[in-house]
Write a structure and sequence with these properties.
single chain; mainly beta; Immunoglobulin-like; 2 helices
């Protein structure tokens, strides 16, 4: 459906003999030049008398019946000299009907490639009207040029069509200019040639046989001219134009034609001057004019005046890339126009049919002042479509995608692309076709920018308007999440885990062992402290962008929430806070810190040296086996090396020797710790008095001394699990010496090195002992005693004893008023001195089951009871 654009209000009128005189109330229009028809109405000149007129003084007078219309053909300038006789007087007047349109305006710059924008200037002496890319005509101020811009993703042909309108309302010829605009930085694949070449300014003779015309005079209708032109061209006519082959102004373009075109040149009755009719046709090469014009002189019957017949003049038709323009010449009546069956609308200014309208049927008629109307005329007009770049689906310019995209277009569309940042190669007939589609997958781990250009090829193999497409495929993982600056690794109370803001989605896992599922992070996460103990949370996180690209996991964060511990490390410092991030350097300072702050746990990392005896007077746990991040690692142990035996400790006098660690009336739990005490006299490594000692995954060693004891317990509770006790470089060494105590051993190993002369593994007096999975590796240089039991009840389930090298006595167990239950025992000894396996006295009881005893010695006594 065509669209009718009616813009300005240049309404042609009728100059009648009523109220249009040049002097006072003279009913006769004044002589002069008019841009519209002059109509003489008999009743206006003389209401009661007859009115006569003639164009030639030698011609007979003609009766003016009704009215006489003096008009000219479009583009014609016609002079009328006539005499008028009425009411007893004769008057001479002269009228020039000037239907020449104003000159076409100038449009700059000239058509062609204009880069990414063009500033359009239109110049002319009259009022200017312009259309941009087929839009409705609008007034154009020549002092205000307009800038047109390229589309962001395609080549564009911008077209401006303009015409001038004089003060009388005559619309001039149309000017047109077209420019190809491309996005910034894009070079076209081919040169640009406008579809329509500017016409009307090039004149040439029509070839023989391509053009014909006839003219005949019709006393009722006027001068009838019929023109036949080559198919696809536009008929053109110039009437009484002395400059017909020099100027486009007098030429009227009559419209599309598929056969002969007939037009009527207005001739008033009695006008007998000769008419010179130049004719031709217009095509893309310009205006082709017949070598010889038609010449015809009207003739009229001398009697009577036939009724005037209204004729509907055809429009002038101008094609261009920006649309097709229809312009009707000024006529005596009012022109009404309908496009493709729409309602007839009054014509006031040139009409533009927007590009792509297709075939439009234009119909029109003329209505006179007396409401009479002409027959309706019609013509079909094929409106060219704007050249458009190909449409591409599957991706958008400047978009970012995270997965493969498929670009689709007409199968015959050609393309070139670049994914390296280089300029895209121009399209040619060697460029590939889109075919079934283009799969663009990106590259793993990277952001790739793709730049494409697409175009159709014409029959000559030249690319048309191009479509440009630039987009990214993002398969690059985002950076790992960043913890907020106020997130700490240690807290004595509740802690908060927070991440820096990011456009990506953060997934977080927080658990005690690092195995929790990842969940979306929506805000700071609170970690609660426990009332009694240490919680170590493992925080893991990764980010996922909007395309599903997943980052590497951030380095796991260990957060320790511990309100009950003091931290000490080999790389600690004196005066530290005793926290994981600021540990103490001394075990004695750590014990004092725990006592002063009411904390009950010391976490120890690395190896410490203590030259100060330790006194434990309140319940305390010492835990070793931490890595640099204070993670408990089963394969790691902390260690304390005691270098000086203590003196002057606050102990009971009957305790005898000094001790490296004294537990008095308190509970001490040690795990993951190796202890070595360097003894020079008589001393204990650990002494427990009326307290409790628990050792787990630990070792205690002594080196040196006259009489060294690894563990001395008085009226206490002792529990050992997976503990090794080692003696070296001593005259006499004893692993366990317990009085009135409850001793429990599980997986305990006893090692005596050859540098010890006399070694006793376990001495129990009073109390009781239960043990399982014991192992003894004893190689003292002189004597060995396994278990010395006095007034106690002992049960051992599982014993492996390997001994050798001693030169003096060997005794597995001695019982004095005691009972011993020994099951699953394996004893293997190679001894240079005498061996006595069991000695029992004072009513002692021995229960032995599943025992294997292999002995090699000069003398062996199995049981001495």
């Amino acid at each position: 459906m065509a669209v009718l654009f009616l813009i300005a209000a240049f309404s042609p009128g009728i100059l009648s003999a009523q109220g249009s005189s040049g002097k006072g109330n003279d009913p006769l229009p004044a002589s002069g030049s008019y841009a519209r028809p002059v109509t003489l109405i008999a009743r206006s000149l003389s209401p009661s008398d007859s009115v006569e007129y003639r164009f030639d003084p030698l011609s007979p007078w003609l009766m003016l019946e009704g009215s006489l219309e003096l008009d000219a053909f479009a583009g014609e300038e016609r002079r009328y000299d006539l005499e008028i006789r009425y009411e007893g007087m004769t008057r001479s007047v002269s009228y020039t009907i000037d239907r020449k349109a104003p000159s076409a305006p100038g449009i700059g710059p000239v058509s062609g490639d204009a880069g990414s924008s063009v500033t359009v200037r239109i110049s002319g002496e009259n009022a200017l009207m312009a259309s941009v890319d087929g839009s409705p005509f609008e007034s154009w101020n020549p002092a205000e040029p307009r800038t047109l811009y390229a589309d962001p993703d395609a080549a564009r042909v911008a077209t401006v069509i303009a015409y001038a309108v004089d003060q009388a309302g005559n619309a001039g010829a149309v000017s047109r200019a077209s420019w190809r605009l491309l996005p910034e930085g894009i070079r076209p694949s081919s040169a640009f040639s406008p579809i329509v070449v500017e016409s009307g300014k090039q004149f040439s003779a029509a070839a023989d046989g391509t053009l014909s015309a006839t003219a005949e005079f019709d006393a009722v209708r006027g001068l009838s001219v019929t023109i036949t032109v080559p198919p696809g061209s536009l008929p053109a006519l110039a009437v009484n134009a002395p400059d017909a082959v020099d100027s486009a102004l007098p030429w009227a373009i009559l419209g599309h034609s598929s056969g002969p075109v007939n037009v009527i040149v207005p001739v008033p009755r009695g006008y007998t001057r000769e008419f010179v009719i130049d004719y031709g046709y217009r095509d893309t090469d310009g205006l082709h004019v017949a070598a010889t014009p038609l010449r015809i002189k009207p003739s009229f019957e001398q009697t009577g005046q036939k009724a005037r017949v209204l004729e509907a003049p055809p429009p002038m038709v101008t094609d261009s890339e920006g649309g097709t323009v229809l312009a009707w010449p000024v006529t005596a009546g009012i022109i009404f126009v309908s496009l493709s069956g729409s309602t007839f609308e009054r014509y006031t200014a040139p009409i533009i049919l927007a590009p792509g309208t297709g075939t439009a049927t234009v119909s029109w008629y003329v209505e006179a002042s007396d409401r009479s109307r002409s027959l309706t005329a019609s013509m079909a007009i094929d409106v060219k479509a704007l050249p458009l770049p190909p449409m591409i689906s599957g991706a958008s310019t400047s978009a970012v995608y995270g997965t493969e995209v498929i670009l689709l277009a007409d199968r015959t569309v050609r393309y070139e692309f670049s994914d390296t940042g280089a300029e895209v190669t121009p399209i040619s007939d060697a460029s590939p076709k889109v075919g079934e589609g283009i799969r663009v997958a990106g590259r793993a781990g990277a952001v790739v920018r793709y730049r494409y250009r697409f175009a159709m090829l014409d029959k000559a193999g030249r690319p048309g308007l191009e479509r440009f497409l630039s987009f990214d495929i993002d398969r690059e993982p985002p950076p790992p999440p960043m913890l907020a600056s106020d997130t700490t690794r240690y807290s004595e109370g509740d802690a908060t885990v927070a991440f820096e803001h990011t456009a990506d989605t953060i997934f977080v896992s927080i658990s005690l062992d690092g195995s929790a599922s990842f969940v979306p992070y929506s805000g700071p996460v609170s970690l609660n402290a426990v009332e009694d103990g240490r919680n170590r949370y493992i925080v893991r996180a990764y980010a996922e962008d909007r395309f599903g690209n997943r980052s590497a996991e951030m380095k796991p964060l260990d957060i320790i929430i511990d309100k009950d511990s003091v931290y000490v490390a080999a790389d600690g410092r004196i005066g530290a806070r005793g926290s994981p991030d600021d540990p103490l350097a001394s075990i004695s300072d750590a014990i004092e810190k725990a006592r002063a702050s009411g904390k009950s746990v010391i976490n120890l990392r690395g190896g410490l040296v203590s030259d100060t005896p330790l006194v434990i007077s309140s319940d305390l746990s010492i835990v070793g086996g931490f890595d640099r991040n204070w993670n408990r690692i089963p394969s790691l142990r902390g260690s304390i090396r005691f270098t000086t035996a203590p003196t002057g400790l606050s102990m009971r006098p009957d305790m005898g020797a000094s001790a490296s660690v004294t537990v008095s009336g308190a509970e001490l739990w040690i795990t993951g710790l190796d202890m070595l005490s360097e003894i020079s006299g008589i001393a204990d490594v650990i002494r427990v008095e009326q307290g409790s000692l628990a050792l787990e995954d630990a070792s205690i060693a002594t080196s040196g001394g006259l009489d060294s004891r690894i563990l001395r317990a008085i009226s206490s509770s002792v529990s050992m699990t997976r503990v090794e006790m080692r003696a070296a470089s001593a005259v006499t060494a004893r692993a366990i010496d317990a009085v009135d105590s409850d001793v429990r051993l599980d997986g305990v190993g006893f090692v005596c090195e050859p540098s010890v002369r006399l070694f006793e593994a376990v001495r129990i007096k009073g109390g009781r002992m239960s043990a399982s999975s014991l192992r003894m590796d004893a190689k003292p240089s002189h004597a060995f005693a396994g278990f010395a039991l006095e007034g106690t009840e002992t049960g051992i389930a599982g014993l492996a004893l390997f001994a050798g090298g001693g030169s003096s006595s060997f005794r597995l167990a001695s019982l004095d008023a005691s009972s011993l239950t020994l099951t699953s025992a394996y004893v293997e000894a190679s001894w240079r001195g005498e061996i006595e396996v069991i000695k029992a006295s004072n009513g002692s009881i021995l229960r032995l089951a599943h025992a294997t005893i292999l002995l090699a010695a000069p003398g062996v006594t199995v049981i001495d009871a």
